[in-house]
Amino acid sequence: MRCYTSSGIRYRILSRRRTELLTPHATRLQSCLLVCCYVTPIREDLVSSAKLYVGNLSYERSEASLRRLFERHGDVASVTLMFDRASGRSRGFGFVEMGTPEQAQTAKGALDGAQLDGRSLKVDEAREQQPGKA
Questions:
Q1: Structural domain boundaries of the chain?
Q2: pLDDT in tens, the chain (134 residues)
Q3: What is the CATH T-level fold of the domain 51-125, as seen in this structure?
Q4: Which of 34, 104, 110, 121 is the most buried (most CB within 10 A)?
């Protein structure tokens, strides 16, 4: 999910055709069709994310055990492990969405480089997937 601004109005893009208008006093003012594609991105350091990339995981690690690990550092909204389509085996990385950006930063600070199953975890803010990469 990305936030954008145009003429002082903030938008949160939900999909290619839908967006939400955001105001300082309400998280969601109204949902509307996205008709203008000429919006300017807000500086990324001002829009912090609560979604974390977790890499170098053991192939046997489950979503439930990853959730328990991150729950020590705040509320966990979602956990997603990535699996190989052909073999069904874990790809060794996943994403954890924390309740707030502050909790995400706390978890990142505590778990980045920590040893788990004999591996050094890599925890970082999740970045938007680049076009053309699957």
A1: 2-41, 51-125
A2: 445 444 444 555 544 444 444 444 444 434 444 444 444 444 344 345 799 999 999 999 999 999 999 999 999 999 999 999 999 999 999 999 999 999 999 999 999 999 999 999 999 999 887 777 65
A3: Alpha-Beta Plaits (3.30.70)
A4: 104
